[in-house]
């Protein structure tokens, strides 16, 4: 009998790619999503890739009653991957209560359901935002967390603490937090990819929309940072590589391979890439020109951050594999399917 995994936010960008990898690895998947930042048609893409249509329930997990009803129906879930969260940094600054209410309540409702229904295993979608602007690079798991730059980032830190404290109090629960760096790209089939509703908040979908003529030009926020070319540096990881890390984390929890009840891992490539280098790689891999201009710095942006992935490589037996050029080409191929 297949092991059943609940993927919250499973029609979203990272969630949908993770559902594909879970199904390809033999898991049965049920998705819970309120479709606030995704489309139901994503299920068609997942089914087209894997030959399996995952179970789906439209639900707002921040509602305690809806969550209770959901778990009464799906009380045979053996593990949960929790993606569902509001995630726009700028919006979180403007509307912090929305972010605290949604992101914290949904997690606490899920943890309460895990206790109620004896579900032991949780993988949490965290973020490198918990490190703020680190004093030293690259970032390791022992790098101190810093005060968050935004309410969104703060919800990730608080959620990590909630999980840590809950599994400490209940020895039958186990949790792994995966601290993502910057997921980009799309599935090589071009059946699923990043599909922001409205104006994209992330670099790559904005860039591909500019190349496609949907938006006039890409703004590069600052060229006067203390980096080789003056633009900000991030660690950009292929979304399929990131999705595979979740499968490995679930398997670790189910095999009891974790050394502590609560663990956390950096999930990145270990390489920092600047915004201008992204543009160069995109143009090289696709043959398309990126219309862009240099503008002033953007409030809240940190100068540079990238991961040391040696711990996650060693402990999880996982590492990123896809090149930057290959990843950006996949993003462009996905964009072309949307026109």
Architecture overview:
With about 350 residues, the chain is of the alpha/beta class. Helices cover about 40% and strands about 15% of the residues. It has a 7-stranded parallel beta sheet with strand order 3-2-1-4-5-6-11, with helices on both faces. Helix 2 (about 40-50) links the parallel strand 2 and strand 3. The chain has 2 domains: about 5-185 and about 235-265, Rossmann fold (3-Layer(aba) Sandwich); about 205-235 and about 270-335, UDP-galactose 4-epimerase, domain 1, CATH 3.90.25.
Secondary structure: elements and pairs:
Elements: E1 4-8, H1 13-24, E2 28-33, H2 42-50, E3 55-58, H3 64-73, E4 79-82, H4 89-94, H5 96-116, E5 121-127, H6 151-169, E6 174-180, E7 182-184, H7 203-211, E8 218-221, E9 233-234, E10 236-238, H8 239-254, E11 262-267, E12 273-274, H9 275-286, E13 292-295, H10 310-316, H11 324-337
Parallel strand pairs: 1-2, 1-4, 2-3, 4-5, 5-6, 6-11, 7-10, 8-13
Antiparallel strand pairs: 9-12
State the strand order across the main sheet.
Answer: 3-2-1-4-5-6-11
> Hey, roughly how much beta strand do the residues contain?
15-25%
* Anisotropy-based shape: globular
Overall helicity: 25-40%
Highest CATH level, the class of the largest domain: Alpha Beta
Architecture (CATH level 2) name of the largest domain: 3-Layer(aba) Sandwich
Kindly report the average pLDDT value: 95
CATH T-level fold name of the largest domain: Rossmann fold
The CATH homologous superfamily of the largest domain is termed NAD(P)-binding Rossmann-like Domain
